[in-house]
Design a protein that fits this description.
single chain, mainly alpha, 10 helices, 6 strands, elongated, membrane, transmembrane, transmembrane helix, Tetraspanin/Peripherin, TET_plant
Length: 285
Amino acid sequence: MRTSNHLIGLVNFLTFLLSIPILGGGIWLSSRANSTDCLRFLQWPLIVIGISIMVVSLAGFAGACYRNKFLMWLYLVVMLLIIAALIGFIIFAYAVTDKGSGRTVLNRGYLDYYIQDYSGWLKDRVSDDGYWGKISSCLRDSGACRKIGRNFNGVPETADMFFLRRLSPVESGCCKPPTDCGFSYVNETGWDTRGGMIGPNPDCMLWSNDQSMLCYQCSSCKAGVLGSLKKSWRKVSVINIVVLIMLVIFYVIAYAAYRNVKRMDNDEPAGEARMTKSHPSHFHL
């Protein structure tokens, strides 16, 4: 029994350690929400799951140390619910970021982003006028476009240098006009609109060299935010999948050890079949 308790304690300690990357992923998404992605509700499920795993693991660890079967049982039940919640979150994260990506542009290092390439609940959420007002205000306050400027020995970068840059989705969608507008490069956030192809893309009319406006009201900016969210969520989801697999393995080990503890408490030898104990009279004629 002591060995089983030690095993349960070890599994709970390892489970506690596994909560750290989940909680870290939620905190990282939270920092992104305040600076880049500007969507402030997506990180909370991960933070809650991470904290829950920490608390439940401590309860299970205490149960193993003090041989409290109720705490061990509580650990197994609640951890099963947490594993189910984590599976649901991973599926949800992949489902809402399934469609959409940047388009390659000839002779450009960056991608262009178009809202029509995205679909589903997340797109509707970001595109909502009331909600977009908060997101665009967050993007302005974060200074994402102010950080895009570069100087080399005091000389601003040339158009050719800028065109080869690998811009983030937000920088590409919000800080410059779409490439198909045909505007002439002046600097990273300044473009000469004369002679441009003010054609089928309505974002061409929305672009402004006013540094407080730029393309924050453009559909390309909304698409850029969606592209940034997709990259953030996919990075965190990879970590979550690895942690989930390890959680399931540890859960199975803890469950087997708990069953062994119960069997020994009931004075049932590990190799004795239940049928033997259920019908002892059959063997003592």
